[in-house]
Design brief:
Layout: H1 19-32, H2 39-44, H3 50-61, H4 72-85, H5 89-93, H6 101-118, H7 120-126, H8 161-175, H9 182-203, H10 213-218, H11 222-232, H12 246-268, H13 273-277
Helix pairs in contact: 1-8, 1-9, 8-9
The structure holds a DNA duplex.
DNA sequence: AAGATTTGCAACCGCAATTAA
DNA sequence: ATTAATTGCGGTTGCAAATCT
């Protein structure tokens, strides 16, 4: 099973994507959907490998991505999940559907790691012990639960692909002010019109309306979210399609954390128990496995 | 003001898992 | 059941911007 050729033959362009390339890619995906990446470079004429196209779409162009500063609430969630799951950025990102795994990973490496190091003593009480039962401010809910249960708050709206490009374009113009991008602007306007119609057709939303958190959750079936949670978190198994409340979920999650820790301590890592006990102020301050926390 | 250093992040690389034939 | 192709993921790198000296 050799490594597959991910790139089309010929000169493959590398480095930052230009707005023109973004527009071509978004336009193609609008028409064909985000699948069959192998065909994207050949069908669009983009001198990029399929993998690069997919990455560009998933990390920067797809609708629903929020960029920019992380809120303190998002930070809390990332810190807790990193403690619980380790460096499983994709799993962590599934709790923050607005953020990409790459974004979270970068933010962790550049900001949170340092922050935690700096505030290590504070952090140990910051992450509540599994059985403390009390605080709701640090609760983590997987997206896809009913809206009234969502605890990942955000006041922002989700950006469409065209808005993503627009934002990228602004950055591009700041860094390359002499570049002639009028045609890109024109194409972008066209793209935004096209996109608002598509949103309207697909979801029944009114034209020119941005997606909100609620809209996004509507598009994320509970069943899929629960399945994902089953796979990535702590093997808490819910019956498919079962509705559950924050209290039920949180209780189950805490119970699972507790049992995992007990298992880890008593069965698999007895030799580390003393060291771990020193950290019990941090509650779930280590991943479930053997990977180091930082 | 200018050079050196640090920081932040987009993008790439390579392996693993999954899917399709 | 096997194998090749595709997709997903996490670690790492390169470079531009920001900050420091």
């Amino acid at each position: 099973m050799g490594r597959p050729p991910c790139c089309v033959k010929g000169s493959i362009k590398k480095g930052p994507w230009t707005p023109e390339e973004d527009i071509i890619l978004v336009s193609y995906i609008q028409d064909h959907g985000p699948a069959n990446w192998r065909l994207v470079p050949t069908n669009t004429g983009l001198m990029r490998c399929s993998k690069s196209c997919r990455l560009r779409w998933t990390n920067y162009l797809r609708p629903g991505i929020k960029r920019g500063n992380f809120t303190s609430n998002e930070e809390e969630i990332i810190i807790q999940l990193q403690a619980l799951l380790g460096n499983r950025w994709a799993a962590i990102a599934s709790y923050l559907p607005q953020r990409t795994d790459n974004d979270i990973k970068n933010y962790w490496n550049t900001h949170l790691k340092k922050k935690i190091k700096k505030y290590q003593p504070v952090m140990s009480s910051y992450i509540a012990p599994a059985d403390s039962g009390g605080s709701t401010s640090n609760e983590i809910m997987h997206p896809g639960t009913t809206n009234s249960h969502i605890l990942i708050h955000s006041s922002s709206t989700y950006a469409s692909s065209a808005e993503n490009i627009s934002r990228l374009l602004e950055g591009w113009m700041r860094s390359s002010p002499n570049q002639t991008l009028n045609s890109a602007h024109e194409e972008l306007n066209h793209q935004m019109k096209k996109e608002s119609v598509t949103i309207n057709n697909n979801t029944g939303f009114s034209e020119n309306r941005l997606m909100t958190d609620g809209d996004f959750n509507l598009q994320m079936p509970l069943k899929e979210s629960v399945k994902e949670w089953d796979k990535t978190a702590a093997n808490i198994v819910f019956e498919e399609n079962k509705e559950f409340t924050v209290m039920e979920f949180d209780h189950k999650m805490r119970a699972e954390r507790q049992s995992l820790l007990e298992k880890w301590l008593l069965e698999e890592n007895t030799e580390h128990a003393d060291a771990f006990l020193e950290l019990t102020g941090a509650g779930i301050g280590v991943g479930c496995g053997s990977e180091p926390m930082f």
